[in-house]
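FYI - complex with fe (ii) ion, inputs then prediction.
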Amino acid sequence: MITRFLATIGLGGNDPEHSWLSQNGLLEARRASAGGFRYTFLLRGEPAFATFWNDFLTVMAKAKKANSRKPGAAARLTRELEELHRIGIALSETRDVDRLLTMILQKAREITCADAGSLYLVEHDAASSNGSGEARRLRFRLTQNDSVQFPFSEHTMPLTESSMAGYCAMHGEVIELADAYRIPKSRPFQFNSAFDKQVGYHTRSMLTLPMKNGKGEVLGVLQLINCKRNANARLTSEAAVKRHVHAFSEGAVRLGLSLASQAAVAYENSRLYRDIENLFDGFVNAAVAAIEQRDPTTSGHSQRVCDLTVALAEAVDREPRGPYGDVRFSREQMKELRYAALLHDFGKVGVREEVLVKAKKLYPLQFSRLFDRFDYIRRDVEARIAQQKVDALLTMSKKDAEARLRALDDEAQRRLGELSGYCDLIAKANEPTILPASEFDILTEIALKTYHDPRGTERPYLTSEEVRFLSIPRGSLDPDERRQIENHVVNSFNFLKQIPWTREFRGIPEIARAHHEKLNGKGYPNGLTAEEIPIQAKMMTICDIYDALSASDRPYKRAVPMDRAIDILKLCVRDEEIDSELFRVFLEAHVYRLAGKTS
Ligand SMILES: [Fe+2]
Ligand SMILES: [Fe+2]
């Protein structure tokens, strides 16, 4: 491999286009107009970071020169190049900022054989958070030491020239010291010996390197301490320091600087990635808040379903056996599931609010208008009876009038009693419970009755729409309203499909769309069968039903106790609506217990 690598960098004389690097997609060689080749290094198919590769090319040129004089030096430089290359790839593959920073410091120490080291990050204050203004702080982020153990707490310090890290960050200058205690008086910075005194350490050689990005901005500072002859030596005494420590060599400075540049770009990328993730988390949370503002009575549902579903996925992930024994969810898949669960009901924003929050069969305004009408009918009956009484008193003999008045009182009592019975029945029918068939007949009977409004127009006691709503056999929604509610799944899908998800999250729209599907094919919107429903959606369905049953935050629906909610889910398993194996894990891992703990 080394031979091929040497050939690639021009030390072997083979055509670079057929070299190992280009064969592995790491190098693009184009013939330059002036003759020879122009190289572009690629990382994951993209042109790699300029600063690092400029350093790479510089070292490469030195290797070529050294090769003509000392073949041994060339081999060493080639090894260093390979090491740098390997580290570069490892750094570019790490997206987690904490892990990345630890790796940067570790690798910088390894490559320069430093006993200890610290990593500082440059921070901007809020006013200059875009990086355009003056940096104000230096964050002491990380420290490593092979020889002594000590407590460390991250902290910030003002960015000034008086510290080596501060000076390096402000001027982008490398500071190489053979002895930290002998800094020339002309330099504005001093060595802070407090750490040495505190933990009994002996700092001697020091190398402070700026972490510059492609634009030459200093993002952080790497400080390497005590360059050792033997990497395994422990510097537990001054004598050991004298024996093992020497100044950082020119080669170590060069390698350290190259690594610091790679590190800066990798850090910038991972920070950008984290910012995008944070931005997206913020967007998802805002979307969830928007759903729950539409229907405050279901507040917390999205978050609870998310927490339950992720907990169920973690439990499934741990399962060693059974139909899902081989199922494992990566960090990205977990995140995909989390987003899908948080946004599963987002489509509710497209459902009319009165339908979304409809608690009874009639809308509140419809119900009060109906009762106002019955109040009017009652008054009308009383007025008509009173009028007939007056007529009787004016036209009949006293004896006949008395009989007539008694008859009219009886009639009034009967009719008012009848009206009051109708009102009771309507109020009962308005509840979202199942109404006996006999009472449906009475509703039809009431609807056939009429009265005269103040303008003398004959009107029915109940309109056809009121009868239709009050005759809903179960629940509070008629078929059209139910369709509107069910359409939230399609709305969720259409909304989520428009988001340009990254490759890892492209399954989100499909997962969210399937959360009301049933294994027996009787779900909606597509009547998918067991094989067609993604496992993520199957898990979410169980958690969605459980939360809908057990949530105590809906005014029109009392919370079902935990045991009862589980019994209902068992019926869903019996009817082949939900997955029996996933439900078993849901029970055995006590996932349901989480419901009461999340808000
Ligand atoms: Fe839903
Ligand atoms: Fe839901």
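The pocket of fe (ii) ion (ligand 1) is lined by residues 344-345, 488, 515-516 (CB under 6 Å). The radius of gyration is 39 Å.
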